[in-house]
Design goal:
This protein has 235 residues and is of the alpha+beta class. It has helices at 2-26, 52-58, 100-113, 130-135, 207-214, and strands at residues 39-42, 45-49, 74-82, 88-96, 161-163, 171-173, 176-178, 217-219, 227-228, 231-234. A hairpin with a 5-residue loop joins strand 3 and strand 4.
Length: 235
């Protein structure tokens, strides 16, 4: 009799739970999703899958409706950096899951040597407009877009490329320079450059170049038909 009573109690509570769940759904409530696991490389340097909040920020902006890369292939990073005033800031970036951890390693080393970065925000804060983000000297990565002046998708579309301090490390071709407000930094020789932050320009063989190269990135400053001094991509 005792066992039978317990079984009836279990059935009663199970039925009650079903009724409560059904009522909750009708009222618009949804079970809370478990928080995405945050992976830490060093204190202040983390990555995780994209949260609902981040997805909401990028949909229709850097993540276009026709994007052919699944959201699950991207990772959201938080990283410390030193800004141009010497203050320690926390920045954000989205990259491909393939390079999430190695990107943390790169920027941790940049943080250790004190290489200054003006700002590090998702390109979506600039409407996912590449020119606007570059003009603000914003360091960023993922943006589902084509290479300027072509029909070919950029490696930024796969989250495999990073642009660092783009205003002082511009993209230069025979057709012009981007961003437009970076003309002073077209002159790459420090002694001749008139830019205020000329000492932060990236050059082949310097510490920034060596750190990116160590972790498997190639540099746009080595390209033959154009020079993309801000651009590092993982191949």
């Amino acid at each position: 009799m005792v066992r039978m009573r317990k079984r009836k109690d279990v059935q009663k509570y199970a039925a009650f739970a079903v009724v409560v769940m059904a009522a909750s759904l009708l009222l618009g409530f949804r079970p809370c999703k478990a928080k995405e696991k945050v992976h830490t490389y060093k204190e202040g340097f983390t990555y995780q899958k994209l949260t609902d909040e981040v997805i909401e920020r990028i949909k229709g902006k850097s993540y276009k409706e026709d994007a052919e890369i699944p959201l699950g292939r991207l990772r959201y990073l938080r990283m410390l950096y030193v800004d141009f005033k010497g203050n320690v800031k926390s920045g954000e970036m989205i990259v491909n899951r393939k390079i999430a951890r190695r990107t943390l390693k790169v920027f941790y080393r940049l943080y250790q040597i004190g290489y200054p970065i003006q700002r590090m925000r998702l390109v979506d804060d600039y409407g996912a407009d590449d020119e606007t983000s570059m003009a603000a000297n914003n360091t960023s990565a993922f943006n589902y877009r084509k290479i300027a002046g072509t029909d070919k998708l950029s490696n930024h579309s796969q989250g495999l490329a990073i642009d660092i301090n783009p205003k002082i490390n511009p993209y230069i071709t025979s057709k012009g320079i981007a961003p437009a407000n970076s003309r002073r930094y077209k002159e790459r020789e420090v002694s001749k450059c008139r830019g205020k932050y000329k000492d932060y320009m990236i050059h082949k063989g310097d510490e920034v170049y060596k750190i990116f190269k160590k972790y498997g990135f190639s540099w746009g400053g080595n390209w033959k038909h154009a020079k993309d001094y801000q651009h590092f991509e993982y191949v």
